[in-house]
């Protein structure tokens, strides 16, 4: 770094320490190291500075200062994101919202919770439990991920089939814009006049403003919940069974699939009682009134057996139900036991295409000579193939990255999209032109400019430049021609 840039950085750090406590401005490289990536560590970059405000007023002052100095700002939550959406830049300040972590109000009559962005996802349900309520979206990282990050990426979870993604469960948000002014989107009522800016902000990956307060819906805790586990000797049979459950008129709280690699890794870690000789496993949770749950569980078990399940089992206690879900929610880290590294993808397809797409992924895995562990939200077609590789083997990561891109393009080709809940970030920029035309991407840029004319909010994320789109299409044409 040049001496002029060093002086500029030191001056910015000094000014930031006038806004927050001095120890909440992180300037040295060693202490900044935990902020160099999010939950996708294959993309790493060091920030200019890291600042951790404790109040909304401090967020406003930081934004005003950076706006005057034309310094880019990157919002960061708990760092559990999986698309490099919070990847730092050497020219940008990372603004961590982790210290804004208070639950401001639980309203059991309105069934809402008003919270700050640094509140953990699971903490909302824990606070609402005494009122017989819970918060629906439950990402696998819910014990650690923050609600602000959930809004930024439109997170889902194993129960999003019945209860929806973040966008379906957030009513209102307060943001600080690029110039430091507060504004509110959404409403605590059932509707709000004007454009639906709440839906626009949800999933915007910190590119439109800093979310400083969120009002979420709370739902009544079901009287009973049970999980039906079914083992299949082929992924195709399991895929076909997913559609059959929905076609029978049952909307499960969650309907998850794991293939053989994921089953064995999760069972070795969680000891959930999974059949390790199965090629595919379905976990179908039904919740509601006791009589309805008993009826639906019996129907689901019968359907699974008729469609080729080699074994079925229904949880008989809350402890058994929790253990079955522990295995599923531990699957991502558990796969680390069978591979030095893995690359987690995120795409969504129509349910009817599950068997076809999983077959194509298996074919491509043989082509690339890389294993894939599939563990995903089968009920809503949100795939999470984990491409296993070894970063110490030259070329392995590049193969995994190319393979992942082709999976996303396959999702688009069958009528799906390149993300279900992880966002675009840096990871999926190259696949955006596979889903959107240049005209459509220009509309995204127009929205971005309306909120952030100078482009200093989380630059380089979410929307590729039109030049990048042209490069992508040129490469694709070359690949197709050579293939």
Side by side, the strands of the main sheet go 15-12-14-13-18-20-16
Shape, per Cα inertia axes: globular
Oligomer: single chain
Q: How confident overall, as mean pLDDT?
A: 95
Helix content: 25-40%
- Which CATH first-tier class of the largest domain would you pick? Alpha Beta
Radius of gyration: 23 Å
Query: Mind telling me which CATH architecture of the largest domain this is?
Result: 2-Layer Sandwich
Count up the helices.
17
CATH fold node name of the largest domain? Alpha-Beta Plaits
Low-confidence stretches: none
Which percent band covers the strand fraction? 15-25%
Describe the structure.
The protein has 483 residues and is an alpha+beta fold. The chain has four domains: 94 residues, Uridine Diphospho-n-acetylenolpyruvylglucosamine Reductase, domain 2 (2-Layer Sandwich); 118 residues, Uridine Diphospho-n-acetylenolpyruvylglucosamine Reductase, domain 3; 111 residues, Alpha-Beta Plaits (2-Layer Sandwich); 144 residues, Alpha-Beta Plaits (2-Layer Sandwich). It is 38% helix and 19% strand. The strands form five sheets. Strands 15-12-14-13-18-20-16 form a seven-stranded antiparallel sheet, sandwiched between helices. Strands 5-6-10-8-9 form a five-stranded antiparallel sheet. A hairpin with a 5-residue loop joins strand 8 and strand 9. The longest helix has 18 residues. The two termini are 44 Å apart.
């Amino acid at each position: 770094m040049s001496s002029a840039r060093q002086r500029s950085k030191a001056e910015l750090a000094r000014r930031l320490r006038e806004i927050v406590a001095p120890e909440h401005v992180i300037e040295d490289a060693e202490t900044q190291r935990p902020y160099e990536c999010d939950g996708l560590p294959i993309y790493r970059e060091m920030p200019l500075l890291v600042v951790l405000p404790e109040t909304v007023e401090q967020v406003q002052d930081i934004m005003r200062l950076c706006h005057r100095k034309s310094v880019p700002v990157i919002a960061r939550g708990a760092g559990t994101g999986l698309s490099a959406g919070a990847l730092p830049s050497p020219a940008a300040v990372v603004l961590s919202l982790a210290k804004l972590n208070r639950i401001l109000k639980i309203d059991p009559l309105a069934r809402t919770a008003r919270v700050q962005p640094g509140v953990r996802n699971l903490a909302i349900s824990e606070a609402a439990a005494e009122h017989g309520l819970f918060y629906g979206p439950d990402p696998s990282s819910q014990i650690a991920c923050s609600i602000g990050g959930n809004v930024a990426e439109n997170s889902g979870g194993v129960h999003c089939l019945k209860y929806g993604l973040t966008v379906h469960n957030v009513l209102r948000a307060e943001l600080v814009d690029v110039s430091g002014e507060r504004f509110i989107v959404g409403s605590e009522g059932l509707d709000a006049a004007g454009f639906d800016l709440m839906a626009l902000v949800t999933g915007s990956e910190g590119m439109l403003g800093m979310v400083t307060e969120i009002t979420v819906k709370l739902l009544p805790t079901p009287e009973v919940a049970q999980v039906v586990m079914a083992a299949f000797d082929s992924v195709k049979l399991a895929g076909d069974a997913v559609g059959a459950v929905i076609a029978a008129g049952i909307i499960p709280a969650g309907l998850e699939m794991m293939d053989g690699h994921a089953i064995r890794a999760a069972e070795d870690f969680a000891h959930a009682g999974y059949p390790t000789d199965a090629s595919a496993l379905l976990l179908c949770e039904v919740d509601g009134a006791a009589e309805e749950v008993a009826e639906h569980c019996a129907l689901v078990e019968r359907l699974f057996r008729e469609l080729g399940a080699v074994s079925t089992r229904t949880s008989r206690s809350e402890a058994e139900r929790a253990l079955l879900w522990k295995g599923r929610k531990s699957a991502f880290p558990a796969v680390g036991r069978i591979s030095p590294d893995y690359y987690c993808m995120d795409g969504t397809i129509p349910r009817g295409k599950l068997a076809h797409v999983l077959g194509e992924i298996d074919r491509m895995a043989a082509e690339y000579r890389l294993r894939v562990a599939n563990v995903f939200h089968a009920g809503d077609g949100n795939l999470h193939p984990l491409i296993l590789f070894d970063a110490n083997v030259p070329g392995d990561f590049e193969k995994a990255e190319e393979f992942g891109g082709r999976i996303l393009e396959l999702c688009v080709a069958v009528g799906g999209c390149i993300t279900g809940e992880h966002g675009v970030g840096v990871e999926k920029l190259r696949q955006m032109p596979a889903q959107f035309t240049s005209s459509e991407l220009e509309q995204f840029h127009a929205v971005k400019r309306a909120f952030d004319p100078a482009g200093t909010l989380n630059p380089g994320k979410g929307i590729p430049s039109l030049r990048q789109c042209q490069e992508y299409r040129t490469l694709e044409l070359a690949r197709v021609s050579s293939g």
